[in-house]
């Protein structure tokens, strides 16, 4: 049976598919009776399950976060929110862990990651400043780092929250930043190096836990911005600073990593103080915010009854959005 596309489910459609338990919440009614709320998902997205009440609570036995279950039911709509949900018609069947690949149930970027890597490697090869190339290669010439980066999301719940999301985000930021640097006559090599290194800390800050993207302990305690500079320090210590770059060149790159969120309240220990750091910051913003907008526009729950303008303000963009009607820009 082909995987279920949760974003294209119609009301009344029958479901009999294997799905990942993304979240499980135990609640109690006013009369004290317990019930269970589940969120299920696969690579195409997430969907809620209608409440499993106390008289059928055993239907959810063993359906814990991170387990894969076979769900049988129909797609209905929760009238209060207008969101689709699965209304179970039988108990969930929990699959043995050894028979499932959790990565197969996580969202994954579209397209060929090999092409993204080829493009990134071309940018490395075109760098004419040896010290900056050596700094970048501390990470990007390391096969273990490349493997980890390709499996890291761009965020846990926001922009590029998919397997390969960080790789795609780095490609977008570097592409935007390089073009901007050329236009503004900034130091192109420095911008490319800063863009390629700005989010390396996410490789250690994020993980897959219970079948969902989550934060590591060091990701929670330090954050990916600080982790990125610490990872750079560690690799330089192993390679020997003098053999890679000068202290001044290192300071420039450290500043770009530490300032790429732009403001202290957004997680940057410092604000951008060079043209190149400013360019990387806004390239990072452009990639993240455009992805938030694009994925919010693709979410059918934001547009009740096929409306052009969203009913509410999607949390990722914070304002109402307009979904352009099909054919708006066709000729004729």
| Rg (C-alpha, Å) | 23 Å
Q: Please report the number of helical segments.
A: 10
User: How many beta strands in the DSSP annotation?
Assistant: 8
Q: What are the segments in which pLDDT stays under 50 over at least 5 consecutive residues?
A: none
Beta fraction:
15-25%
Q: What number is the mean pLDDT? A: 92
Q: Tell me the strand order in the biggest sheet.
A: 1-2-3-5-4
Please state the second-level CATH architecture of the largest domain: Orthogonal Bundle
Largest sheet: 5 strands, mixed, barrel
> What's the CATH topology label of the largest domain?
Hypothetical protein af1432
Count of distinct structural domains: 2
Straight-line N-to-C gap: 41 Å
| Basic shape | elongated
Give me the secondary-structure category: alpha+beta
Helix content: 25-40%
The level 1 CATH classification of the largest domain is Mainly Alpha
Task: Please describe what this structure looks like.
- The chain has 332 residues and is α+β, with helices and mostly antiparallel strands.
- It folds into 2 domains: 6-103, OB fold (Dihydrolipoamide Acetyltransferase, E2P); 106-293, Orthogonal Bundle (Hypothetical protein af1432).
- Helices cover 39% and strands 17% of the residues.
- The strands form 2 sheets. A 5-stranded mixed β-barrel has the order 1-2-3-5-4. Strands 7-8 form a two-stranded antiparallel ribbon.
- Strand 1 and strand 2 form a beta hairpin.
- Helix 1 (113-126) runs parallel beside helix 4 (165-184), helix 2 runs parallel beside helix 5 and helix 5 packs across helix 9.
- The protein starts with 13 loop residues before the first strand and ends in a 35-residue tail after the last helix.
- The mean pLDDT is 92.
